[in-house]
C-alpha cells in the first residue's frame, strides 16, 4: 500500500482469504488488475466476489513458474 501511487493495477497471487480486505479496497479504487489463484481446488470462499478478475494457474503452469 506504500506504493499505491506508483502503479496502475495490482496483480495479487494468493488463494488466502486474509487478502480479502486488500482486494476489496483495490477493487473499489479501480486498482485491482487480476487475482491469480494457484490452486483452483482449495481457495477461500471470500475470494469468490472477485471471480471476474480471477485467473487459476494449472499444475503445468505452476511448475513452469516455480523457481528451480
Structure write-up:
By secondary structure, this protein is α/β, with parallel strands linked by helices. It has one domain. Helix content is about 25%, strand content about 20%. The protein contains 2 helices and 3 strands. The chain has helices at about 20-30, 60-65, and strands at about 10-15, 30-35, 55. Strands 1-2-3 form a 3-stranded parallel beta sheet, covered by helices on one side.
Which regions contain 5 or more consecutive residues with pLDDT less than 50? none
Structural class: alpha/beta
The biggest beta sheet reads:
3 strands, parallel
Strand content: 15-25%
- Counted beta strands: 3
Q: Terminal Cα separation, in Å?
A: 30 Å
Number of domains: 1
The helix/strand order is EHEEH
How many H/I helical runs?
2
- What is the radius of gyration computed over CA atoms, rounded to a whole number of angstroms? 13 Å
Task: Give the neighbour order of strands across the main sheet.
Answer: 1-2-3
The outline comes out as globular
Query: Level of helix content?
Result: 10-25%
Global mean pLDDT: 91
Amino acid at each position: 500500500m506504500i506504493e499505491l501511487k506508483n502503479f496502475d493495477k495490482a496483480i495479487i497471487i494468493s488463494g488466502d482469504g486474509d487478502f480479502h480486505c486488500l482486494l476489496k479496497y483495490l477493487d473499489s479504487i479501480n486498482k485491482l488488475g487480476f487475482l491469480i489463484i494457484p490452486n483452483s481446488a482449495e481457495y477461500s470462499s471470500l475470494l469468490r466476489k472477485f471471480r471476474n478478475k480471477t485467473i487459476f494457474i494449472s499444475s503445468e503452469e505452476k511448475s513452469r513458474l516455480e523457481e528451480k
